[in-house]
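Quick question, first post here. What does this chain look like in 3D?
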Amino acid sequence: ITVLPVVNDTNEVIGIITHKDIFKALIQLTGYQEKGARVVVETKEDRIGVIAEISNALAQNEINLSHIFVNRPDDVIEITLQTSGKEPKAVKELIERLGYQVIEVIL
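> Answer (accepted):
Ran it through. Tokens below.
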């Protein structure tokens, strides 16, 4: 599907959304065009508080978290963290101290 119609309350077509619009929105939501570091964390734990634990640890270490994106491929959970600074090594070490596996670091 490359185009989806946009309709109003009376089901009249008032526009379209293209696959490019959706891709652009996804890039904006994940922060991929912004400067900073991205760290991808993998966990098999699907429990309340995982994101809170990670974000609190970052905040306590004065690391600004600008975006969080959660993906669930197969039987794991991938949490992509976008920070506004360029400290991927510090973020990686901090998250690993919490007991989580860092599978990718991108600057």
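Strands lie at 3-7, 13-18, 37-43, 65-71, 77-83, 101-106.
The two ends are 33 Å apart (CA to CA).
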